[in-house]
Structures are given as C-alpha cells and as structure tokens.
Amino acid sequence: MKKLAIYPGTFDPITNGHIDIVLRAAKLFDKIVVSIGKNPQKKPFFSHAERCELVREVIDSLDLPNVETGNFSGLLVNYAKNIDATIIIRGLRAISDFEHEFQIALANRKLYAEIETVFLMPKESYVYLSSSMVKTIALNDGDISLFVPCAVKTAFKKKIGGKK
Ligand code: COA
Predict the structure, then answer these.
(1) Which domain holds residue 146?
(2) Model pTM?
(3) For position 155, which CATH number holds?
(4) Is 18 marked active-site?
(5) Which residue lies with its CA nearest to atom 4 of ligand 1?
C-alpha cells in the first residue's frame, strides 16, 4: 500500500524551515500533501486563499514529483480520512515544541486510530525559525531573504505595500 502523508500547518507564511521538512519527507513517503489549515484560533496575516496560493507556488517550484498541496478546515483527522492519508508529518524544532505536539498527536490518535504522527527535525540552522519571527521582521521593514523563498518576500511586499 502506498504511504500517503499529510504535512499540515498554518503556513503564515511558509518558510525555509517548512521547506526543509518537505524535502526530508519527500524522501521517506510515497506521496506528501502539504495541507494548509484555516486555523480560526490564529489570526493569520495572509488569508487562507493567499496562504494556499503561496504554498502552491513554492511547492511547485521545488518540482518534487511526489509532493502536492491541499487545504482543509475543521479536524485534521477528518481531512486525513477523506484523502486516505495515514501519516501526519510535523516538524520538531526544539524541546519546547514537544509538549504541544505530543498532546495533539495523542488527541489525533484517539480520534483516528489509524493515524501515525511522524516528527522530523529540520536542519540545525532553521531550529529557531518561526512564521511569527518572519512576520515581525517583514512588518518592521527588515530583510527576510535568509528565511523564506522569493515568492514569500514578494507576497509581503505586495500586501504591505497595498496597506500603506
Ligand atoms: N520551520 C519553521 N517554522 C516551523 C517549523 C519549521 N520546520 N515547524 C513549525 N514551525 C512553526 C511555524 O512557523 C509556526 O510558527 P508561529 O507559531 O510563529 O506561526 C509554529 O511552528 C506552529 O505552526 P504550524 O506548524 O503551522 O502548526 P499549528 O500549531 O499552527 O497547527 C494545524 C496547525 C493545522 C496542524 C493544527 O492547528 C490543526 O491540526 N488544526 C485542525 C484542528 C485539529 O484537528 N486539531 C487537533 C485535534 S485537537
């Protein structure tokens, strides 16, 4: 049976750290669906539609035959069932991520016994990186080139420019 894995996230915005996880996962599973959640608990800077478009553009540019994008709202496990995914990939950057991720992984397994969460560690140089950090730098006119792909930098310029 083909191993279909979901890499879910808010991706507000997608960063080089997320891309690093995608590249690692692409070597391990038959197919990865990078899935953008609506996540009403967070107040994203980019709308769900904007995040989906941006992630699609970035993932397409990687040209990985077994990686595609998707989107969901509501419970992650319901989405996993709908697309026949049995693996959830999450990045684990530091011990501080662990408690939250452990809790969610166990809750997801209670809700859907077939699902396994697999944690991957990003490259050391990305362990400090977060989407919030990128937003803080971009919204204060800092340079985010080292942290995100070009498309994300352009999207910030467009959105911030439009608000000025
Ligand atoms: N590189 C860079 N940043 C990374 C990263 C990496 N490799 N791995 C994680 N992060 C950061 C993100 O940038 C993000 O930073 P931020 O908090 O500054 O925005 C943070 O880690 C976590 O964000 P993300 O990975 O997007 O996950 P999340 O905690 O927002 O959760 C969902 C997103 C969609 C997986 C989760 O909300 C979900 O499953 N929602 C559906 C409801 C549900 O089913 N819940 C579970 C049952 S209770």
Answers:
(1) 4-161
(2) 0.95
(3) 3.40.50.620
(4) yes
(5) 130
